[in-house]
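Readers outside the structure-tokenisation community will struggle with the description of the input data as it stands. What matters is that the chain and its backbone geometry are given together, residue for residue. For illustration, here is how one protein appears when written out as sequence plus structure tokens:

…
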Amino acid sequence: MSTTSLPTPDHAAELRGAMLAAGFTADGLLDLLGAPAYAALARSETVPALRATRGGGDGPLATLVRLFLLQQPVPYVHAASAMPVEAALADGWLRREGDEVHATVDVRPYGGPDGEDWFIVSDLGCAVGGAGGIGSREEGVVLGVGGASTTLAGITVRTPVGSALDVGTGSGIQALHATRHATRVTATDVNPRALGFTRLTLALSGAPEAELLTGSLFEPVGGATYDLIVSNPPFVISPGARLTYRDGGMGGDDLCRTLVQEAGARLNPGGYAQFLGNWQHVEGEDWHDRLRAWVPRGCDAWIIQRDVQDVTQYAELWLRDAGDHRTDPAEYARRYEDWLDEFEARKTRSVGFGWITLRRSDAAEPSIVIEEWPHTVEQPLGEAVLAHFARQDYLREHDDAALLEAHFTLVEEVVQEQVGPPGAEDPEHVVLRQNRGMRRATKVDTVGAGFAGVCDGSLSAGRILDAIAQLMQEDPVVLRDRTPEAIRLLVEQGFLDPVARPGQ
């Protein structure tokens, strides 16, 4: 594990002020580098950014980019014109070699959801877009912001809460987001170095301090409970626990299972727990059943599988992540064999990746929705998560008879597509498609399409079906009997919104 000492946050406010004054922000980077070079950083390609900063001369912004984001040495005099250099040296953000200074940590500008100018602090070369990308084989390395981090931040429910817990905080990205809407934020990590980076991230971002506790999973917080729990855990299913930032150290997907199962008892009533995770697809076992067994008692759950990789793809992905593909070929082959041996021993054929959301409802009949949705979505999805559980509550409380008495409106941004051969009198089928949120699409029959198209809240579902039956010359009783299931599906998937009537 890395033993390099970390900077202190003593002059973080002064350093933050200098960075903002120089335009060292997400927007400032885009303006300086241009879209192609900015996008290249996300692929860990730094040459375009280096060229762009050379064109920026010795100005404060170009100096800060080369120093903290690209990890290039800069002349002391240039650093002194961009920041309080002596304070930065004293606190350990910089080290001096002759007439040049070097950054000791990776600092990446990060735009908050409401335009906040934040900074994520991590180990050198370990911010996505940093000089070396990830590719690190150092056990205790602490990464910066990446795709998984922003995904979890986007799906997290952002209602005001009294308490929030970030399990396995890393460089503090989820804790930073939580400070916007939680009165009290606690962050834990098994790696004490990660907590040091979280402290720096919060201080340099001008955010409130958080309670920082060392330990694994929920062990550091004792019996405390929370309104919101988030975690981007070390979910990689690997042979051993070589890299703290990604390998959980438990067999198979046991770490993710344990995290989910233990979260229920840590949630306050009505609270949410949201995780990213990997899970095994085991020979002879339905993966839906595997995940359903993870859901703790008293919790509703919405689990979405976003991707599946066979075991060879999965092993190659994470071997590259650690830079093993750049080692001796024989060593690489040995490590690859280790991964395949592990999967074979566990009868694992593929690995799923996705999102897990729990809500503590204490319902007699919990709602557990487990689905596969690999398609494009529109982030942020926090409001969509809230709406999903609200719809589950509604459907749980309304039987078929109540649905027929209810009023609905078609959600905005839903379009209808007719699919069939050109020139055909009637379509083969009709598709309703959302252009926001989950961007779902669902097939409906003629009745379903006609029903959804006239839902404006003015008529009950039963009255609409009676009118459709008359137009189609069908028995209205039969139509009323067979349609509630389709209505229930359209509500569950977010195509129809219930309308509250006076007195309800």
